[in-house]
Amino acid sequence: MIIIRELLDKDMLQAIQLKALCWPEELAGMSEHKLDIDKEYSFWINWMHSGIENNDVRTLLGAFENDKMLGVAFASFSEKEDSQCGIELNGLWVYPEMRGRGISLMLMSKLLNYYENLGLKEIVIYNYHHSSSNSFYRKFGARVFKTEFQMDSKIPTDVFKCNIVSMKEYINRSLSKYCW
């Protein structure tokens, strides 16, 4: 049985290693940049614990089966220039061999439910333009509302936005296909 729960400090190194594993695919060949695991770990563990002092609600979730991590999702309040009443998906990574089981959908559903219960209305997603996961967000109703250039202005990044209720409806329909 797949369990979705908040990540603990002890889970964070594996979560960052998963991010690093998925990083080349996320960049879609647009950069040879490699992630420094120690720097990423330090950044995200600090980010995890600094939400309150930054007037933010940060959520870090993991999908687990028999205590084995399958995937993770990170979210927080969005920047005001992106959405006055929204969240930002800061990361969504699933082990390649675990894909196709609805894990991303379960993680997204839990995040969206949590933030909707706080009264938030939209989700904002920054995703590299050439990343294959862009089709995932489009499938669930997200639309590009601007494009930015990241990583020293070299890599085009699509910025998606979607109504939380609409995305939840798309995701819940897709989740109904999976039997656990």
From TrEMBL:
Molecular-function annotations in GO: acyltransferase activity, transferring groups other than amino-acyl groups
CDD domains listed in its UniProt record: NAT_SF (cd04301)
N-acetyltransferase domain location: 2-172
PROSITE patterns in the cross-refs: GNAT (PS51186)
Superkingdom classification of source: Bacteria
Any Pfam family hit: Acetyltransf_1
Signal peptide positions (record): none
Spans traversing the lipid bilayer: none
Protein name, entry field: N-acetyltransferase domain-containing protein
Species whose genome carries this gene: Anaeromicropila herbilytica
